[in-house]
Design a protein that fits this description.
By secondary structure, the chain is an all-alpha fold. The chain is about 85% helix and about 0% strand.
Length: about 50
């Protein structure tokens, strides 16, 4: 649920930034994807600890 929302927000943001230079866009793209993945994994881990 969280991952879908985060990717749903980051997708249009990345599309809007499509006019950036290739190097800048690649850096921002990788940063956003890595942050979304880390937040998703961290949130999932916290939920799993609550269930145990």
């Amino acid at each position: 649920m969280l991952a879908g929302r985060l990717f749903g927000i980051s997708g249009p943001l990345l599309v809007a930034m499509g006019k950036m230079s290739t190097d800048s866009f690649l850096n921002v793209f990788v940063t956003i994807i890595v942050l979304v993945v880390i937040l998703t994994v961290g949130y999932s881990y916290q939920l799993s600890k609550k269930l145990i």
